[in-house]
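Before relying on records like the one below, remember that each one covers exactly one chain. Contacts with other chains, cofactors or solvent are not represented anywhere in the record.
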Amino acid sequence: MKAVRGRANQALLLAVCLFACAVALNVVYAGNAAARALLTVAEASLAGGVADWFAVTALFRRPFGFPYHTALIPRNRQRLIDGLVNAIETDFLSKEAIGARVREANILDKLTLFAANTNMRPFIRQTVDKLIAGFVDTVDAEATAKYTERVLKLILKRQSVVPQAATAIRWSLDQGKGQALYTTIIAELATLARADTTRERIYLYLEQVKQKTAEKDWLSSVVTGFMESIDGINLADAADALHQELVRTVDELQQAEHPARYWFENQLEIIVAKLETPEWEQAINNWKDCLVSRFSLNEPLVALTAAVLTLLKQPSYYRDSVAEWLTDQAEFCWERFAQCALAQQLVESYLQEIISNIVNHEHQLVGQVSRRALQKLSDNDLSRFVEDKAGEDLEWIRINGVIVGGLAGLVLAVFKALL
């Protein structure tokens, strides 16, 4: 640009020098035809150069302060910006042009090549750390627990327990585990039977029975009160007796040859057969659904979520372990993806479709961004911007003005000589 402008100025200076020489020759050699012809050529060349210099300069500023129809670009700033924005939207960055460039550019290939030539693990690890930090800051323990409980209960309700239960019981019988299962159940019952709380529960149950009996009618109430007054009803002694009888019964059930052991195995076989019937399956699933609906996992899930978030909130061994595991999984998935041509084609098509949709729906942003950038330019900056982009052609106009003017003068000189 500067080189061309220098040549344009040199061409105009040459026309001035030629004019000065022609004037001098006409003074020295007055009436000489060659001198007059040279003066005609010099005049036309200088006039063409000055006229074109004025015209080009008037686009950007006021030559010599001349106010009329000069500084065209600053005066028509808004029209120029509208024209540039329209050219950008419809020609340079049209939907079709951007779409063609997107189709030509294989985004995934460039990304794969970059990943193959770069150690991506530090970047992945840093990204994982940022994601964990952002995850911990945004997750609400109670909301997460509530959602997790809902999902778990939905899974449990959709899952039938009958096939698994039948399979487990059948396997136990085939492996001869029926007696071991019976022993385990009776041992647990013996532990519960000997507990102090069992005697208290028996007493509370007898108290409830007595209260219900007394409330039936006035006669029952009178008889119950009379029996208590003469110590005919002693709930404490009755609870002790029932508790001792329960412990003795459970101890008998633990005997190796007790008939209940064989009855238990027979019942297991009967249960397996009944579990395969629709009625039992429906009944057990209804019981399971009712049980799932009744119990709440919210409190333990809230505690578990809060504990996990606390461990992940600050740098620790657990957080580093999670980050390392996620980084390993990301690298493994990327390696598998890089080896699958079909997956790459699908992702490439998906990326191009996303970009195309964005371009089609948000193409007006191109004009908005261009307009905003151009509006920020001052008049001088806008003139300089246009001059930098089209200045070389404009300077060649100036050079051509000197040359064409000289040629026109030469034609006039020849024409005058022939007259």
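The mean pLDDT is 80.
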